[in-house]
Amino acid sequence: MAGHPATPVSAVDQSLNNQIRKGVVMSVSEQVAALEQAGRCVSQVRAYVQQGLKNLKSFSMVNGKLDSDLLDKHQLSCYELAFCTAELAASDAVCRYSADAVTEDELAASTALAFSAEAVSSVIQRLIARAGDMGLDIAELSGLYADSDIRELRSVYGSGEFLASVGATVSERGSTRLPTLLNEDKEMVRDMFARFGADVVAPLAEKIHREDLDIPDEILQQAAELGCFGISIPERFGGLQPDDRDDSLGMIVVTEELSKASLGGAGSLITRPEIAAKALLQGGTQAQQETWLPRIASGETLCAIAITEPNYGSDVASLGLKATPVEGGWVLNGSKTWCTFAGKASLLVAMARTEPDPALGHKGLSLFLVEKPATPGHRFDHSQPGGGTISGKAIATLGYRGMHSYDVFFEDYFVPADHLIGEEAGRGKGFYFTMAGFAGGRIQTAARATGVMQAAFEKALGYSRERKVFGSAVGDYQLTRVKLGRMMATLTASRQFSYSVARMMDEGAGQMEASLVKLFTCRAAEWVTREAMQIHGGMGYAEESAVSRYFVDARVLSIFEGAEETLALKVIARNLVGNA
To answer: Alpha-carbon distance 429 to 443, whole Å?
Structure first.
C-alpha cells in the first residue's frame, strides 16, 4: 500500500502552481484536472482508512462474529476512523458538485480543492497519530506525504497563498453564495423560506435568545401558512411531500434557510413533525394517519418527541418509562428529559416500555401519542379527571433558546388504546418506527448546522470588510483571508455533502451517510462559528453581536439527534467495521 514514488515538479508545472497560489483563474480543463487529482488523493488515503477498519474487525472477532465488547476496547480508533470516513465523504461530495459547477463559477472548484487539501492532510494526521492502535504501518503512512499527487494537492491548494486567494475572491464579491445547482422548484422553495427567515424570523431572533422567550405565534402562524410543518407529510394528508416519493432534499433546503435566520426560533420547527410523521407513516394505522397527519401538517397540532431519559441518554434500548395496560388504554409512569418544545406542543410522541421483560431491550418499547394542553412559558402541569398528571420544567441552556427543552414527568397518566401507534400490532415496535425519523433528523441536523454556518460566515465577511485595524480593513490581512477561504470551503463541503445524502435518501438509501454527514457538519459548525466570532474580536464575545448566538447555538448540534460519541462509535464505526 505504499504511495507512488515522489516525482519532481517540472519548471512549467511549478510556474502554473505559483500562478494558482496567487489566485490566477484556472481554465475549465485545468479545474477538472485538478478535481480529478483531488479524487485520486482521497482514494489513496481512503485505502488506509479501510485497512484500519479491517484491522479493527480482525481484532474484535470471536468465532467468526464481531464482538461488541472487544470492539469497545478500540473506541478511540473507532472514533477517529469515523471522522476520517466523514471527512473523505465530504470531500467526494464537494468535488462532484464542483465538477458540475465549473462552467458556472470558477470559485466552486477552488473551494473544493482547498477543502480536499485540508481533508487529506487531516486524515493522514489522524491515521499517523493512531497508527499502532489501528495496526497500520507508520512509515507507509508517512510516505503518503511524498506521493506526487498528495504533495501537489497540499502544497498548492492547501497553501496560505491559495487559501487567501479564495478568501480575497469572496471578500471582493461580498457574497458567500455559489450556484446551488438545485432545480427551479427547489430554488423557488429556498427563496420563499429565505424571505420568510429574513423578514419574519431574523428580526425577532435576538429578543428570543436574550430573553429566553417562546417562539412567538407570529412565527408559528406564518410558518404554518407556508406549509413548514408539512414538509415531510405526503400531499394526501395535507402536506407538501409528493405522495409517491420522499423529498429529503426539499426538507433540508427549507431547514437551512430557517436555521440561518434562527436555530432556536425557526430552524428546528420541522424536526419534530418530521419524526412524528415518519413514525406514523411507518407503523400507524390508517385511522391514526388520517387523524393526526393532517393536523400536524397544518400546524393545528404542534408536537414534541419524548425519547431520552435522565439515566440513559442515547441508550434507547434501556429506556424505562413504564406503560401499564388498563381498561381502555395504558397509564404512563416515569420521566423523560431533553423533550424539546414540550410546553407549546399539544402532542408528545413518547416511547415507553410496554413489555415488562427487561431482556427484550428495544423490542419491548412502543410509541404513544400523548395529548396534553399547549402551555406557554417554562413550566406546565396538567391533571386528568382520573388523577393522572403530566408536568414539565424547561432546562436552562446557554443557547438554542426559543424551543425550550424540558424534563417531563408522568404519573399514572392515562393514554387511550388507540393512541398506541399501530395499536396492538405496534406493541414492541416503537424503536423500529422511530428509525426512519432518526435518519431524517440527522440529515436535518446537518442542514441546521449549515444554516448556522451560513449566517455566521455572512456576518464575519461583512465585519471583515468594514472593521479597520492598524489602518486597514480586517479582511485585507492574509490571515483573515485564509480564515474566510477555509470557512467558505468548509461551508460549501457541508452543504453539498448534505445535498448528496438527501438525494441518496430520496432513492431509498443513505442511512449510514445520514449519520456521517451529521457527524461532520455539526463539528464543522462549531469551528466556523468560532472563527466568525474570532474575526469580530471583542465584539464577537458581546451578546449584542449575533455571532455570539451562532456560536452557542452551534454547540448543541453535536449533542442532539445522536451525540457525537454515540453516533461515531455505536452507529458509524460499528457499521463500517462490520462491513470492512
So the answer is: 23
Residue type for position 487: M
Separation of alpha carbons 150 and 166, rounded Å = 20
- Sequential DSSP letters for 191-225: HHHHHHIIIIIHHHHHHHHHHTPPPPHHHHHHHHH
Q: Summarize the confidence of residues 495-515 as an average pLDDT.
A: 94
Contact 433, 422 (CB under 8 A): yes
Average pLDDT, the chain: 91
Select from 32, 79, 29 the least CA-distant residue to 52. 79
**Angular region, 153: left φ>0, alpha ψ -120 to 50, beta rest:** alpha
DSSP state of 41: H
Q: How far apart are CA 513 and CA 86, in angstroms?
A: 8
- 121 CA to centre of own chain: 23
Contact between residue 23 and residue 48 where contact means Cβ atoms under 8 Å apart: no
- The secondary structure of residue 399, as a DSSP letter, is S
CA 291 to chain centre: 31
Q: 128 is written with which cell numbers?
A: 499517523
**DSSP reduced 3-state for 179:** coil
| Catalytic position from the list 184, 526, 561, 565 | 561
Tell me how far apart the alpha carbons of residues 244 and 65 are, in angstroms, rounded to a whole number.
39
| Buried-exposed string 127-142: b where 16+ CB fall within 10 A, e elsewhere | beebbebbbbeeeebe
Q: Is 274 a catalytic residue?
A: no
Rounded alpha-carbon distances, angstroms, from residue 123 to 77, 118, 141, 279, 400: 12, 9, 10, 37, 31
Run of H or E residues at 532: helix 511-535
Q: Residue 227: which region, alpha, beta or left (left: phi > 0; alpha: psi -120 to 50)?
A: left
* Residue among 366, 374, 227, 373 nearest 284 (CA): 366
Secondary structure (DSSP) of 147-173: SHHHHHIIIIITSHHHHHHHHHHHHHH
Instruction: Summarize pLDDT for 322-368 with one digit per residue, the tens.
Output: 999 999 999 999 999 999 999 999 999 999 999 888 778 788 999 99
Local structure of residue 420 (DSSP, 8 states): B
Output the pLDDT for position 74: 96
Q: Per the confidence metrics, is the pTM higher than 0.85? A: yes
In this structure, what is the dihedral angle of CA atoms 492, 123, 556, 567, given to the nearest 10 degrees? 120
Give the torsion sign (CA, 62, 68, 71, 72): negative
Residue 312 pLDDT level (bands cut at 50, 70, 90): low
| 452 torsion bin: left (phi>0), alpha (psi -120 to 50), beta (else) | alpha
Closest CA to 443 of 499, 524, 488: 499
Q: From 350, 9, 322, select the one nearest 148 (Cα to Cα).
A: 9
